[in-house]
Specification:
Elements lengths: L9 E4 L2 E10 L4 E10 L2 E10 L3 E3 L5
Antiparallel strand pairs: 1-2, 1-5, 2-3, 3-4
InterPro entries: DUF2158
Protein name: Putative small protein
Pfam family, one: DUF2158
């Protein structure tokens, strides 16, 4: 059964990467996530859509 997340949940990709905040979930099973990348002293906002089976709750990851 695929994971289900709600707006505001903090998640990570199963393969690793930064913590991301879920901002929207669609009936298609895609979740829009936001995070920040740091390059020197500059933080740049990023976003992308991911399938539910690509994500895990951040507190479940190591």
């Amino acid at each position: 059964m695929p994971n289900t997340f709600k707006t505001g949940d903090v998640v990570k990709l199963r393969s690793g990467g930064p913590k991301m905040t879920v901002s929207d979930g669609a009936a298609s099973g895609m979740y829009l996530c936001h995070w920040f990348n740091k390059d020197g002293d500059v933080w740049t906002p990023q976003h992308a859509g991911f399938k539910s089976d690509q994500l895990i709750a951040a507190d479940q990851s190591t």
